[in-house]
Amino acid sequence: MDKNQLLKKIREIEIKSTILANTIFAGEYHSCLKGNGMEFSEIRRYSPGDDVKKIDWKVTAKQKKAYVKEFVEERELPVFLLVDMSYSDNFEDKRNLISELVASLAFSANKNGDRVGGLFFTEKVEKIIPLRKGKKHILSLVENLLTYKTKYKGTDIKEALRYFGKMFKKRGIVFVISDFLDEGYERDLKMLQRRHEVISIEIRDRKYEKLPKGAIFTLEDSESGEEIIVENIGRELSLEGVNLKGGIKIYTDEDYVIKLSNYFRRRRRR
Question: Would 122 disulfide with which of 30, 86, 163, 259, CB 3.0-4.6 Å?
Fold first, then answer.
């Protein structure tokens, strides 16, 4: 992709994503994810009329005087986009969907005044996009997504989740975008959910989920290069993906706007 093609592609994504962020995502995103909790502010001396439920009994016992914990409503939650850049997500339809999805989520967060950051990973964490606000930052994030050349082919979701968990302690909204063709990450995903608001988005392509009957196929793993032979003479074979509890599964032939909007509406009702 030369410079002119890149600029055209970014412009197309910007126009579509901005319209979606302004018309659909913003309202659902805002009502569902903003101000979902309370954040610790300070400890101060108890005053008559304070709620006794706020008393910090450990500090009170230590100081021999009553102290209470003060909390403030979370007004801003930083948004992190953890994007799987491995070879299994590098097919054109998947990559196009991921690019538009990331841009739409980023523009929606930016419209709400939230800082947005990114983490690109394969079998290693490859690139970190710092948390910032503004349209220029969002466009730079999208450009990085479209132009970044990965150093590795494989996928290690566990490594990415652990790295993120160690680096970012303050509570935020975390979108994990991947085909989730990996194993052993479930425990780390649950641990991350204890601190952050984590939303898993599984990207799938129907073309690679079924093998028609009546043929012998030689399949190559796009990440490892390993080849296997599948004899599929008698019946059609289904290549099932994972089933992420509480996550979103989006196929490349689906309208991701509808899928995400419905997901946010369900969360708001809960």
Answer: 86
CATH of 3-34+75-210+245-269, one of 3.40.50.1220, 3.90.70.10, 3.40.50.1000, 3.40.50.410: 3.40.50.410
pTM of the model: 0.74
Domain layout of the chain by residue ranges = 3-34+75-210+245-269, 38-73
CB atoms within 10 A of CB 39: 13
Query: Would you say 114 and 74 are in contact if contact means Cβ atoms under 8 Å apart?
Result: no
Residue pair 216/232 in contact by the 8 Å Cβ criterion:
yes
The contacts of residue 49 (CB under 8 Å, 6+ apart) are: none
Average pLDDT over residues 110-121: 90
What average pLDDT does this structure show over 115-132? 94
**pLDDT of the residue at 83:** 96
Confidence class of residue 68 from pLDDT cuts 50, 70 and 90?
confident
